[in-house]
Design brief:
single chain; 263 residues; alpha/beta; Rossmann fold; six-stranded mixed sheet; four-stranded antiparallel sheet; 12 strands; 28% strand; binds adenosine-5'-triphosphate; SufC, Fe-S cluster assembly ATP-binding protein
Amino acid sequence: MIIENSEVVLSVRNLTANVDGTPILKGVNLEVRSGEIHAIMGPNGSGKSTFSKVLAGHPAYEVTGGEVIFQGQNLLELEPEERARSGVFLAFQYPLEIPGVSNLDFLRVAYNSRRKAQGLEEIDAFDFDDLIEEKLDVVKMNASFLSRSLNEGFSGGEKKRNEILQMALLEPKLGILDETDSGLDIDALRIVANGVNQLASPENSTILITHYQRLLDYIVPDFVHVMAQGQIITSGGKELALELESRGYDWVLEEFAAAEVGV
Ligand SMILES: Nc1ncnc2c1ncn2[C@@H]1O[C@H](COP(=O)(O)OP(=O)(O)OP(=O)(O)O)[C@@H](O)[C@H]1O
């Protein structure tokens, strides 16, 4: 939802990053305001997941230049857990399995850690049970998943749903969803999209990384960006996703290349 004069939540300027010494991000620029939903599309290997992991503070990615300001704070100076506590949430493309850690315990610790960072009191197990019950409903998830080890043996779609459950609980200021639609059946896609829509508010913002226009039928973005070769090479409204669906990426890449050489 575009709200005039709303606060800039995330400002990314000329961000560059390497993986194992190889430059992957080559000058990313993006501004996200409160209440907005941004979709990032783009060919395979263009740097979309790298961008999301750099924002979350993944240690394998080395930032080599540029800046990322999140709510007035230099995000790049914060440890990954500090970023999470300050309200950045990344739903992974491939959620990790953690055997031996129950989903419920994980969620409670994560939730209380976020509350602590907000200067709020931790909540006890009983109150947490009530809260989680309510959040399970957002993603129509069965309570039996809570007693299982985190993501262990979960199907691909169940893992994605569990990521949205975490997001519903943590209520981040900025949610980054990396291909949350991949591996979801048609009903699950709708449920997950409804969950994301229910959580969207003028106070938070979402970045959706997706390959498919169909997700954007359910979660309508305010802006669509195309990432290629480690940069955002063009941006538009939701109609850009439809155009990409019918025309592919070549024309955007050609226009970008022509602009680069000044044709
Ligand atoms: N450790 C590594 N060493 C060298 N290159 C790497 C390494 N990790 C990732 N890359 C490369 O970085 C590029 C960007 O990868 P990334 O996962 O960010 O792309 P993506 O746009 O999310 O792709 P997809 O749409 O396929 O998920 C790819 O070419 C990938 O091979």
